[in-house]
Amino acid sequence: MAKAIIKKTEDIQYIRESCRIVAHVLRLLREMVRPGIPTKELDVFAEEFIRSQGGEPAFKGYGSDKSNLFPASLCISIDDQVVHGIPDNRILREGEIVSIDVGVKKRGFYGDGACTFPIGIVSNEKSKLLRVTEESLHKGIEHAHAGNHIHDISAAIQEHVEAEGFSVVRDLVGHGIGRSLHEEPPIPNFGERGTGILLQAGMTLAIEPMINAGTFRVKVDADGWTVRTADGKPSAHFEHTVLITENGPEILTT
C-alpha cells in the first residue's frame, strides 16, 4: 500500500533549492536546443551548470543494476524515444521533438523536471502532441489538493489526453520525491477518480505525463535505458515537482 511522506518545513526549503536549479537548467537549455547541436553538448553544459550551483546531477550513476548505471546527467529523448534516452553524438535535426529530463540533488534532497522542445518547425501532429501533453500536466496539477486522492491527478491527465486522441504510457509513472529521487507514492497518468491515497499538505510529488501519438505500448532498447514507443510514433514528456499546501498546489520547478 502506497503511503504519504510528509516533509518538514526545512526539508521543503532544500527541495525548493534543488528544484530552482532544475528550472534554471531547463530555461537555459530552451535557448540552446536547435538543429545541429549534439545531445552530448547539452549534457556537458547541464552538468557543469548544476555543479556550479552546488548541486549534483541526480541521474548520473543512477540505477539498480551496478553493471549498467545511467551514464549521463540528462535524459534526452528524441521523437519516438519516450524517456531515459542517453546523450551522445547524435545531432538534433529540424522537425524533431526532444524531451529533456533534469534531476538535481543538493543538501541531500532532490528536484526533478522535464520539458519537450520542438527543433525548428515541427509537424502539426507533433505540435499538438506537445500542447496536449503540457496541458495535461497542468490539468493534473490542478487536482493536487489536500483532501483529494492521488488518482484524481491521474484521471485528469488521462481524460484530457484521450479526448485529444493521444495515449497515456502505462508502464511508467510519476512519483513522490524528497530525500530519494523516487519515493512513494507512485503517480500513474491514468486512473479512476476518488481512488488511491489521500493527498496531504507537505507532500512533494513529481507529476510527469508521458504521452504517445499512437499506442500507449512501449519497449526498451538494448542499452537497458532508452524507452521507445512500440509503433515508432512520437512521444512527449513534461514534468514538474509540486508541493501540496493547505492552499493548493505550488509548482517548485518554475
Characterization of the model:
This protein is α+β, with helices and mostly antiparallel strands. The chain has a single domain (9-251), classed as Creatinase/methionine aminopeptidase superfamily (Creatine Amidinohydrolase), CATH 3.90.230. Helix content is 28%, strand content 26%. It has 4 helices and 15 strands. The protein has helices spanning 9-32, 39-52, 124-141, 150-163, and strands at 56-57, 74-78, 81-83, 97-106, 109-118, 167-168, 174-176, 183-187, 204-207, 210-212, 218-220, 227-229, 235-237, 240-245, 248-251. Strands 8-7-9-14-15 form a 5-stranded antiparallel β-sheet. Strands 1, 2, 4 and 5 form a 4-stranded antiparallel β-sheet that branches. A 3-stranded antiparallel β-sheet has the order 3-12-11, with no helix packed on it. Strand 7 and strand 8 form a beta hairpin. Helix 1 runs antiparallel to helix 2 (39-52). It is globular. The mean pLDDT is 98.
The total of helices stands at 4
Task: Report the biggest beta sheet as strand number plus sense, adding barrel if it closes.
Answer: 5 strands, antiparallel
CATH superfamily: Creatinase/methionine aminopeptidase superfamily
What's the CATH class label? Answer: Alpha Beta
Topology, element by element:
Layout: H1 9-32, H2 39-52, E1 56-57, E2 74-78, E3 81-83, E4 97-106, E5 109-118, H3 124-141, H4 150-163, E6 167-168, E7 174-176, E8 183-187, E9 204-207, E10 210-212, E11 218-220, E12 227-229, E13 235-237, E14 240-245, E15 248-251
Antiparallel strand pairs: 1-4, 2-4, 3-12, 4-5, 6-10, 7-8, 7-9, 9-14, 10-13, 11-12, 14-15
